[in-house]
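Box 3.1 A note on notation
Throughout this textbook, protein chains are presented in two layers. The first layer is the amino acid sequence; the second is a token string describing backbone geometry. Keep the layers aligned when reading.
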Amino acid sequence: MCGIAGWTDWTQDLRPQREVIENMTRTLALRGPDAEGIWVAPHALLGHRRLSIIDLAHGAQPMADASNEVVLTYSGEVYNYLALREELQALGQAFTTRSDTEVVLRAYLQWGEHAFARLTGIFAFALWDERDQSLWLVRDRFGVKPLYYFATGTGVLFGSEPKAILAHPQVRPVLDASGVAELFALSTAPTPGHGIYQGFYQLKPGHVLRFDANGRQDLVYWSLTAEPHSDSLADTARQVASLLRQVVEEQLVADVPLGSLLSGGLDSSAISAYAAQALGREGRSLPTFSVDFTGGGEGFTPTPWQSSWDEPFAQLASAALGTPHATLAVAPEQVLEQEDAVLRARDLPGWGELDSSLYLLFQQVREHTTVALSGESADEVFGGYPFFHDQQALDFSGFPWLAGKSGLWELLRPEVAERVAPQAYMARRYQEALAEVPHLAADSPVERRQREVTYLALTRWLPAMLDRKDRISMAVGLEVRVPFCDHRLVDYVWNVPWSIKSVAGEGKSLLRNAVRGELPEAIVERRKSGFPANPDPRYLALLRSQLRQLLIDGDSPVFDLVDARRVGELLELEQPLPSPRASSSPTAGLAYLLNLDRWLRLYQVEIRL
């Protein structure tokens, strides 16, 4: 997958600053453990860390054309690169490697900005064009691969993660009022493009930014559009199955070992089924992996977000598909031991044990494979989350996953809350999101609202999930692919009427109908069950003890933002703290505050409200 970094400046000669780009690039070593490359020009410095997936012996980056006029630093996978390569060769482009990187470079040389919409895959890359001294930043349609940038006034800094930009000597980590609002009010579904740190931005999914000495242009090469859907229920299910099978088979391309994450849920099981079938035709097996907690499902209580314990279903799916399967058992102490590693991977406060247990799972997966398939994003595409089916959430005049829920903003100190105005901030961001939603004039009120909720899920909720998966997987040098994010599949399902997506109020009934016959019926009919929280009471006790110690010490930077008295009262009453996640648990709020404190200390974040 790789990591990229760069610095452009149109007013100074950057060649003496090679050490700076080396330091920026080195921060991304975990993303690309196999090789490092630096490219230097008078007004551009580019860096690259490589995780070798395709054409292992070649494809070194940054990659330039023969005249050294155009150079590319690239992270990602373009799944249709072989078809594009053939087309480009027919047009006269000559290749020296078998890599998809060179296909991206030569596509730009052949088609310019029109090349980007031809790419199918997950990617984030930068192109420096010496011919007109321009920088192009490009990101895939759903933001599966990250790309941050920071405008300096005379140039641009960019990197796969904030840490690369923070390594620049002119940049300091600063948190302003909008950053506080994002962390305390919208941590589940952050605003597209917001980089949390002051002056930091993320390139929006499906967007291209072009910079030169005269300014910048923001181009959109893909977005959701509303189109009529005329296929019957049966034809729609067949088309979804066909598209999904095609997408999974395309994403099996790799010159390194490949496996699949298998929780036993509908989504991961469907992806694993199609992958196992395709590999089986070649005489290859598909290793699968899941996570469990010490003690298994003892004390497990079903919730709307987690209907059942994963492990029995993971074993059922593996047995049915004939996959060699490994389960990682996580103890409470192990979760706490990974907190700093996860924080440094994210560069921002995360989701507590959900992050740490995922990190431990990915560590194990990486011992066996370099690439793993995931069922991520099926709930957003097919309407699987509880808020798609809860009338209170649908009627709520805000982000539907926040209906009837308290939030971390309730813990802000009064003077901080006055400056940040978190509820007004949420309302403004919600209205901005609604204004983007494409509709059909013929949409019924029910169809109109479900289209809005699906759009919110795909553009606000999903990016946070993808960001988490990218950071934690890349921290162990693992590439995770997400077939449900293929734009052809999403474009099709986005326009399917809600009456087909959800028959008789059933979540993801379209997907169930599409894959029925490929999986055991118990898995096809299994209700939504998210990534499991740690049920062990020892973990809750450890978190409470740590937070009490922060209150006793009295010097924690987190209490510059959070009302210590209110936190102390909740601890004394042994009541849960407000959670940053819609799928709350007794540990979620505690873990987030502790993570926030550690982030403020470790990154020496300055708060400016």
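The chain has a mean pLDDT of 93. The chain has 23 helices and 19 strands.
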